[in-house]
Design goal:
InterPro entries: 6-blade_b-propeller_TolB-like, Glc/Sorbosone_DH, Quinoprot_gluc/sorb_DH_b-prop, Secre_tail. Pfam families: GSDH, Por_Secre_tail. Keywords: Signal. This is Cadherin. Helices cover about 5% and strands about 40% of the residues. The chain is globular and about 80 Å long. It has two helices and 35 strands. The protein has two domains: about 1-10 and about 375-454, Sandwich (Immunoglobulin-like); about 20-370, Neuraminidase, CATH 2.120.10.
Length: about 450
């Protein structure tokens, strides 16, 4: 019997392929461009219009804004409130950072703080850390992230217009077309990390890497610390870069190269000094693609087949892609909403995505987990995913059933006997994730099903 159970367990974990789908989580947002968590069960949804809203775990959005700086920003096209990052010590210092284009169109990075008496409200006066003039209205970048080294990383586009005519991305004295890194815990208003590549050399001290076109979205893998940067292409190639944080000094190639292909190599450094993409896909005419929206490496627990894969979307194709550990890409079918502008993760590292087209925040799910693992099994679990309780349906009406719940390592967590289909089994004490449910009738024959608890 133990051998049979082990075989069923192996089948339950490996006998299926992931299927990317979306579940509507919350509606009513206006041009969502960022989803961030602050280490608790809330999601903070950044709207390009200058408003940050709080989305609670019960899928209810607070009626009042967490922060409204609409009077400070210019909007339209690629301008607006674009980025949000909470300080690693936010729980104690209350600091968070935003990236927006001001009324002059310049990029501003500013620090704000939470209201001391109301965690759902921010103080309305911030401190500007950095202002960067923008020559055009597009290619503003916008994402802010704290790295595993505790420094604040800022993605800056090349300033806009076609083909980077000012060759800013390759100019080490310009902050446009770069990844910047700041020490916001020291200095006034910040200090330069000593390991920044130009901190003690010719070049702008804030620069961590050069050669970016428009790194609209980037993120850090919470397991290995690698930085994933999705850089929007010019005409033909969308690129995804993966690098260790380290000391930086990378040259990601633009405008010399678009992805792996030469674009304008006049006056460029040697090719072997460039860091080429980990993965690329076509956005050439007829492909249906136009602009990569970078996401995250999935590190949640609900969908084991997603673990370790990097998720991204394309703004025009309305598909979500996954990059494997070898750099190969697989895609979902066309998904609802479309116009995907941002991904986000909650404190449990479950994945969300937002549509600019309809203002909906979706949860990214693996629908293959919603079916019984053993296709011909007479038993099935429902609802799946479960919230607090679940029940077991017997297609043959064979009761009583001995029900045992295991985690995916095979550890038994609970066991009970049920007499009918409508008996709820309490799993409220179990954390969110994937479990295995073993149902045995009087003959002792086991049937294993997957159960997702949310």
């Amino acid at each position: 019997m133990k051998q049979l159970y082990a075989l069923l367990l192996l089948f339950a974990l490996n006998g299926f392929s992931q299927t990317i789908a979306l579940q509507s989580f919350a509606t009513g947002f206006n041009s969502p461009v960022e989803i961030v968590n602050a280490g608790d069960d809330r999601l903070f949804v950044v709207q390009q219009t200058g408003v940050i809203k709080i989305l609670n775990a019960n899928q209810v959005t607070n009626p009042s804004a967490f922060l409204n700086i609409s009077s400070l920003i210019s909007t339209g096209g690629e301008r607006g409130l674009l980025g949000l990052a909470f300080h690693p010590n936010y729980a104690t210092n209350g600091y968070f950072y935003v990236n927006y284009t001001n009324t002059s169109g310049s990029t501003v990075v500013a620090r704000y703080s939470v209201n001391a008496s109301n965690p759902n409200l921010a103080n309305t006066v911030g401190t500007i850390l950095l202002t960067i003039p923008q020559p055009y209205a597009n290619h503003n970048g916008g994402t802010l992230r704290f790295g595993p080294d505790g420094y604040l990383y800022i993605g800056m586009g090349d300033g806009g217009s076609g083909g980077d005519p000012g060759n800013r991305a390759q100019n080490k004295n310009e902050l446009l077309g770069k990844m910047l890194r700041l020490d916001v815990d020291n200095g006034t208003p910040y200090a330069i990390p000593a390991a920044n590549p130009y901190a003690a050399a010719d070049g702008a001290d804030e620069i961590w890497a050069i050669g970016m076109r428009n790194p609209w979205k980037f993120s850090f893998d919470t397991v290995d610390g690698n930085l994933w940067i999705a850089d929007v292409g010019q005409e033909n190639v969308e690129e995804i870069n993966k690098v260790p944080v380290g000391d930086g000094g990378y040259n990601f190639g633009w405008r010399c190269y678009e992805g792996n292909s030469a674009y304008d190599t006049s006056g460029c450094a040697a090719q072997n000094t460039m860091t080429f993409p980990f993965a690329t896909y076509s956005s050439a005419g007829g492909s249906g693609n136009c602009s990569v929206t970078g996401g995250y490496v999935y590190r949640g627990t609900a969908y084991p087949n997603f673990v370790g894969k990097y998720f991204f979307a394309d703004y025009c194709s309305d598909k979500i892609g996954m990059v494997s550990s070898t750099g190969s890409i697989s895609y979902s079918s066309v998904l609802p909403g479309g116009g995907f502008t941002t991904f986000g993760v909650n404190a449990s590292n479950e994945l969300f995505v937002a549509s600019q087209n309809n203002g909906v925040v979706y949860k990214v799910v693996d629908t293959s987990l919603g079916v019984n693992d053993v296709e011909k099994s007479p038993f099935s679990v429902y609802p799946n995913p479960a919230h607090g309780t679940f029940a077991v349906h017997s297609g043959t009406g064979a009761f009583p059933l001995q029900i045992t719940v295991f985690d995916i390592s095979g550890k038994k967590l609970l066991s009970r006997t049920i007499e009918s289909d409508n008996e709820n089994i309490d799993v409220s004490g179990l954390s969110s994730g994937l479990y295995l449910v073993n149902a045995q009738d009087n003959s002792g024959m086991p049937s294993v099903s997957r159960l997702v608890i949310e």
